[in-house]
Design goal:
The chain is of the alpha+beta class and about 325 residues long. It has a single domain, classed as Endonuclease/exonuclease/phosphatase (Deoxyribonuclease I, Chain A, 4-Layer Sandwich). About 25% of the residues lie in helices and about 30% in strands. It has six helices and 16 strands. The strands form three sheets. It has a seven-stranded mixed sheet. A six-stranded mixed sheet has the order 5-6-7-8-13-9, with helices on one face. Strand 6 and strand 7 form a beta hairpin.
Length: about 325
């Protein structure tokens, strides 16, 4: 009996770890990400880490099917044509022409034409800083049943050393959003901005201080931030460079107008490994990989659900 009492806790731990691993492999754990709903329009923003590369495309399809987006706002796309294999054939795609001097890493918007109409695509080259970094891409989204809005997709300069370039890009984004909102009575002036803002901080600035500076800058365009549930949207290998991966918040959501969405409902949910690990550190390696981190992207999909219009009289 003494041996049993000593061994039983260890057996239970092994069983729990095994169950967790099986659920992880099957992609069954998406804590915090709401299930798709017929009364919601779903927009998903995702940095796909230089797609296509050595991506697990079957897992990508599985994850996208589970998320069931109506609109995709994607970053780091090297070959936009390769995206067609990830969604049904009816889907439509628009890509930026440029993507910075290293890549290129294009911005892409994809959508289900049975759910939304996408109009007036526009590339914003001013944010590319003369072609050195990525531009912005915007479209006008008109759902069959839901709020119309301008959707901006951005991917700002990376790393702490890129802080000053990002600050220049903020001002340029502010001007582009303000211009779009003033286009006239044909289009609504509601705006949603999504993407990889790379708010990593700077040599003398923390990431939280950078987010505060960004908020003050974008406030001039009427943009306010959405809550990122759980607080992280990506992982990196940390300062120790060991097999422990650290959470970070690089991908953000902002909006102007959007009166259909109450303030307390302006939340975005990170999926895949951010949801699975609930933004806690985790250990993984190439020999024992985290399937979504190693197989898809270091970034997680960021899910936005917008209320559809009530058709009832």
């Amino acid at each position: 009996m003494k041996i049993l009492r000593r061994v039983l806790p260890l057996v239970l731990v092994v069983m729990l770890v095994g169950i967790h691993a099986l659920l992880h492999h099957a992609g069954c754990l998406h804590a915090g990400v709401p299930a798709p709903r017929s009364d919601r329009l779903r927009v998903v923003s995702w940095n796909l880490r230089n797609f296509p590369g050595e991506h697990d495309r079957a897992r990508m399809v599985e994850q996208l099917d589970r998320l069931d987006p109506h609109v995709l706002a994607l970053q780091e796309i090297r070959d936009p044509a390769a995206l067609r294999s990830l969604r049904p054939p009816r889907w439509r795609w628009i890509a930026s022409e440029h993507g910075g001097s290293h890549g290129p890493q294009r911005l892409v918007v994809g959508w289900d034409p049975t759910e939304v109409e996408v109009l007036d695509p526009m590339e914003h080259p001013s944010l590319s800083m003369g072609g050195r970094v990525r531009p912005a891409l915007s479209v006008y989204v008109r759902p069959a049943n839901g709020p119309d809005f301008h959707l901006f997709v951005v991917h700002f300069k990376a790393t702490r050393q890129g802080h000053e370039v990002r600050r220049e890009q903020w001002s340029l984004l502010e001007k582009e959003v303000t211009s779009r909102r003033a286009e006239g009575p044909v289009l609504e002036n509601d705006v949603i901005v999504v993407g990889d803002f790379n708010v990593a901080g700077g040599p003398q600035t923390s990431s939280s201080e950078e987010r505060a500076l960004l908020e003050a800058s974008l406030d001039r365009a009427g943009l306010t931030p959405w809550e990122i549930v759980s607080g992280c949207t990506a992982y990196w290998d940390g300062s120790r460079r060991d097999t422990w991966w650290e959470p970070s918040r690089l991908d953000l959501v902002w909006s102007a107008g959007m009166d259909e969405v109450p303030g307390d409902a302006r939340r975005a949910w990170p999926g895949t490994h951010c949801a699975l690990h609930r933004c806690a550190t985790f250990s993984a390696s190439e020999d024992h990989p985290e399937p979504d981190y190693h197989g898809i992207s270091d970034h997680c999909p960021v899910v936005i659900d917008l209320p559809r219009h009530d058709d009832e009289p």
